[in-house]
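User: Run a structure prediction on this.
Assistant: Running it now.
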Amino acid sequence: MRPVYSVLVLLVLPLALGATPTRTLTSSQGVLDPCDNTVWYSGTLLRLEGKGWQDTESYYDRLPAKAREVVRPPVWDLSHHTAGMCLYFATNAESVRIRWTVRNEGLAMPHMPATGVSGIDLYTKGNDGRWVFRRNGRPEAVSNETSFAVTPGAQCMLYLPLYNGVKAIEVGIQNDMVLSVPVRSVHRQDKPIVFYGTSITQGGCASRPGMAYTAIVQRLLDIPAINLGFSGNGRMEPEMAELLAELDPAVYVLDCLWNMSEEMVTERVGPFVRRLRQAHPNTPILLAEDCSVSNTTPTRKGALVRKIYEDMQSEGIADLHLLSNEDMLGDDGDGTVDGVHPNDLGMMRQATVFSRSLAGILNVSLNLPSTRPGR
């Protein structure tokens, strides 16, 4: 009977997400709280994007279960963080409640607030197609609850924490309201951008999940994104090349230089790119230089990558691109929290540079922010 039910949902609930096919969750799929007539729906019932593999140990892990025996322990530990993951839904209610429980008791870091490390962000899509920030959920403990006002019928995108994992997350609405879920991506295409890199890629040190540069790029291009940033551990190991080769993205973005020595850059960049090209002959690959708070262009490692890029082009490796670090952080010194990790201003500046490059590579339009990179 389930296929018949799904067909009925597609017919009666197109209004919740415009032209995007949806399915409706029934109240029996949730848990009713009789005290306030709220039905709570598990996040596992919603559409989840930003997850590259389905066969994970925990539902909100970023790497597959088999990676435990393959990658270094720090990479495996960081794979439990939910950086880049988003839940999608719509409702005819005017407000929703969110409950979430994180894995780790450390909610914040000295240079990154709890809202970025362990918080959640809600965005809705307007009639003009732009994603607009509505409100964030501010963590005060391992288990938290907040409420958001929403526009009935609007597409909702809920970002999960950048530097903490999620054990469970639930969306609550009144029992007489309807919660619907898109059956495909609400973005302009299904294939994601895959970002692989460092703590900066993971989102350090954005004030909230939606301000990580990868998330800003996702919204500016309206294309799904998978964040495979691993703080201190984006080192282009062969094992990670094998894992990334299993994905089928619109483009690979490799942003690892901050975590690599000059020797690593010389030895690993070429083989990593060649493995991805072998697995995906026609998928664009973007090599990013390391950002510089002083706007030094190129850095020493950036110069090495430029030479490797030129050599691989001479070899005939097609659709390989290089992104200069110029203007990634501006030259006013205001783009970081510590001389390395971007603050929100630095994240926006980086996202602008990355988005311009990716828009050209993917031949798509973008909505640039009103602020330009400092010069």
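The chain has two domains: 14-182, 193-362.
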